[in-house]
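To whoever is covering the structure queue this week,

Two jobs came back overnight. Logging them here so there's a record in the thread.

Job A:
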Amino acid sequence: MDAVRSLAELRTICAALRSRFGTLSLVPTMGALHAGHQALVEAATVSGGAVVTSIFVNPLQFGPHEDLSRYPRDEAGDLARLQTWGCHLAWLPDVTSMYEPGNATTVDVAGPSEGWEGDARPGHFRGVATVCAKLFGQVRPDRAYFGEKDWQQLQVVRRMVADLLPGLEIVAVPTVREPDGLALSSRNRFLQLDERRLAPKLYATLSEVAAALGGGDLSGPVLSAARRQLQQEGFGVDYLALVDGATLQTLASVTPGARLIAAARLGSVRLLDNVGITQPGS
């Protein structure tokens, strides 16, 4: 596996990989890699093309009250993991390489970026869309792989690709979970012991709500009861909502493609999770 830090090197090696493998797959990450990232890399390898993984802690995704310096970093460990997982090229740009002096363009995606995380973290999805647009232009992949855990982010990237036509496919990979159901996240390492024991309750609650709604229960009472239950358990619930999976618009009842999304706080850690809903007979 090669690891490069300059755009010139990146383009040279990407051209060689494309010549050898026929196609390129990109896995964008912010590092601190775990089994969830492994699933993305391994899904990319199944395509048969060369796999490029980017590691870049994107400052545009962090708001003024979010601690960019606290985001976990482990470059040496990440590179060792990528080597083991079958990645062909690691792209490690610094901030100046990604956002050269004089850069004046950002990407705003309306629609799925509005509400939920868009309200909780103003400007976050502008940062996501901008860095993804840059990565797509730098690597020029045929496919890019994103996890379903960050559901709203996935829909923002899909919308951007549908609108701007950069000529690649966005591939969604199911959320990877701990044995107790907790969705894997680089931030989970900041959970205190008692918080870690409680954290799987978020997924358990979402699963219970999804089963109830899929069985025909009314969404209003079920969602209200679930929020109260989580609050009583000790979560700070930012939202737990039934939405259209593609647009993130609130739904009053289950329709095809409906999704339950949630954000809840335990101590200093903000947990995101989501589940789909299976309707009877589907």
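Job B:
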Amino acid sequence: MIKYIGSKRALLGHVTGAVRQALPEGGLVCDLFSGTARVGHALKGQGFRVWSNDHNTYAHTLATAYVQADRERWAEQAEAVIAELRTVTPEAGWFTANFCEEARFFHPDNGARIEAMRNRIEAMALEPELKAIVLVSLMEAADRVDSTAGLQMAYMKAWAPRALKPLQLRMPDVLPGVVAGPCRATQGDAVEMAGQVEADLVYLDPPYNQHSYLANYHVWESLVLWDRPETYGVARKRVDVKTRKSAFNSRPGIAPALEAVIAGVKTPNLIISFNDEGYLSREQLVAMLSARGHVQVMEIDRPRYVGARIGIHNLKGEKVGAVGRLKNVEYLFMATERPISLPAAA
């Protein structure tokens, strides 16, 4: 899966372990801030019915491929489309100009490959689930040859070694359907969606500070939408990054937004993933959950994201400072209808 700040890759065992403890006989789990869909993908693989939601289009595409789509339905067709895409002739255009020349996220040779493949996908008029699988194949291939530290706010001063390798498509790890019933992916604002959610367990992994996922991963949004938007700045961000704001990226906005989600969802079990760099304290989150059931908190020490460990750089890529700390505390807050045994901290 793509590199992603806030990814729960390292915490996946803790999250899925907590879900299994709360729902030992399975059930429907709703992930309202699905991001890369890593959590939903893991839960589907363990036999849970999963409902993944996110407001960004690239995240909805990832969830459609990794949660909603079933391997037995699409694998053969997806492999055939991916094989056809490998044969296209590279052709530079808008994407290459913006993200390989004006910005340097990808080498121009790979930019032209990405561009030609994306144009072919659009011309194919694929069914939505099949299109999502193929777009995820392209997104992940591009991610493997990018020249960033994991965020699309800046790029390396010199090409990263991986950026000089030719882009190669692979079939994404699309899972078989689950016996319990179909999984689904939706696209919507979590506050607006909360009142529609009824599930055996709801998992919330909201943005927790000023860092916008749309701004950090704007290239994926443009690649998936293929709308060739007006761009700005050194990173050639989509102009709508300036207007598509989330209350969860706002210090005054996050508490009422999260309280509205917590109050709106219908579920006996609620898990929130948060971080000690967030706008809300441990005490505030416990208070928010106290009316929902038995509250438990797990603390997990983790290294900060790779960009922080590299240090602070100016727009020329020159190191100009060091970060104040190299570790975070990740929290899992659990409000459940009965006390559960917490997964062992790693």
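Note for Job B: Residues 1-64+179-207+248-346 form a domain with the Rossmann fold fold (CATH 3.40.50.150).

Please reply-all if you pick these up so we don't duplicate work.
Q.
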